[in-house]
Design goal:
DNA_pol_lamdba_lyase_dom_sf, mainly alpha, about 40 residues, Crossover junction endonuclease MUS81-like HHH domain-containing protein
Amino acid sequence: MNNLKIAKIFYMIAEYLEMEEDPFRPQAYKKAAFTLENMEED
């Protein structure tokens, strides 16, 4: 898997956690996804 695919999965997990009304974990997944998207190496 490359970083963009993993980032997409992390964004989906964040969306699910937001539906569960978890205030902190979605932010962590979004931050990790953003970091993966902006990495130069796969």
